[in-house]
Amino acid sequence: SEYVNSTVGEGQTILPNIYVEDRITIHAENTIGEPLSQFQISITPKDLSSPSISSFANSSGNYFFFPTMEGFSEFDEFTITITSADGSSLPVSSDIDLASLAGNRAISTVIPNATTTLPTAMDLMLVIDTTGSMSDELTYLQTELQSILNYIELSYPGIDIRFSLIVYRDDGDNYVVRNFSFTDDIQLMLDNLSSQNANGGGDYPEAMDKALNTAMQEQWRTSSELKLLFLLADAPPHNDKLQITVDTFLEAKSQGIHIHSIAASGVSTHAEYVMRSLSVLTNGRYIFLTDDSGVGNAHEEPKVPCYIVTALDDLISRIIESELSGVRIESSPENIIRTEGNYVDGVCMPQV
Question: Model pTM?
Fold first, then answer.
């Protein structure tokens, strides 16, 4: 919220207002204290007959509800219904009154007789800006994706992975959005990525909104299995598409898709704001390249108080592993290139 207020307060009135201060954390576990990975959840405002929200938790048994951003700011009372991902438990419903929540705005529910299992399948989509300024970043990903996938398959043998690729440019280029649908053929995915090149663009904004709309229309799994989208870009959507692009989070949340944004060189205020918003609202992470990478042109300093710098392939691998395991995986000390601020296990701590 501090980042949103400071950014919009700098005269960036064209940016959508992202209100996250009313976030509710809904946690579920079974009777022996195990987090209920990927549980199914429905949320219904009081006096309404059908669920207004239906989605899935993450692998650590948490679901994040943003009443204002999701259109329910006028409601205080809701009924939440939780079912284990594998259907091993009967649905458990409870009523919540947001006005009576403690300061941490967290709700914890125990689901009797439920078993918890980590994801056995994953849909992995790459959405990449392939305009001319993205040449170095595209080449890097084409080179490193194989090692990332090898690491995941080695760490999680037997995981059922499907891949999809969407590349985009802008109106007036030789294509606006090019879509390669989900496949379980790794080599086909790598070949599709390798055949792409960076060209076109011209003005700063690009057709991010159209690419993400295409992504939401893809045939994602309908079950509670893991669904990840990595968005690699260096430019925002056009000004009249900023709100539409941010609103993508509603469809992503309903399908249980986590958007992890990767900011390339050239990213400035509008692009960072949109990409960070999409990630925080869909339980993803905002990733940014720095000048340490040697990839692309000069990188603007991100508006975050602390962070660590590691190789991008290491970071993407850890994010995927964290999503699969339900435990945030931090970098090994020997893989940390440098540290900015007082970063401790993903949290910015006060300077000592």
Answer: 0.91
